[in-house]
Design goal:
Strand order of the largest sheet: 1-2
Radius of gyration: 15 Å
Shape: elongated
Number of strands: 2
């Protein structure tokens, strides 16, 4: 059931691919916020770093679940 949803295509790509791309962008953005604050550039306050990290972990878990559902057929 979940594997059918994970393989649903939008604009030619399955949903699991969009989850992976979203996870990658969130990881890069989270690291950028932390790095800029470390260098003293506080354009985006550091309080957003843990929030972005939590969102990134959540999206990565959903992406992993969809990826496993494709191979394990659940």
């Amino acid at each position: 059931m979940f594997h059918a949803f994970a393989l649903t295509t939008f604009f030619g790509l399955p949903l699991v691919a969009y989850g992976g791309l979203t996870t990658l962008v969130l990881v890069i953005f989270t690291a950028t916020v932390g790095f800029l604050n470390f260098k003293g550039i506080h354009t985006i306050p550091f309080k957003w770093h843990p929030v972005l990290a939590l969102i990134t972990i959540t999206v990565a878990i959903i992406h992993g679940f969809f990826g496993l559902s494709i191979f394990l057929n659940f």
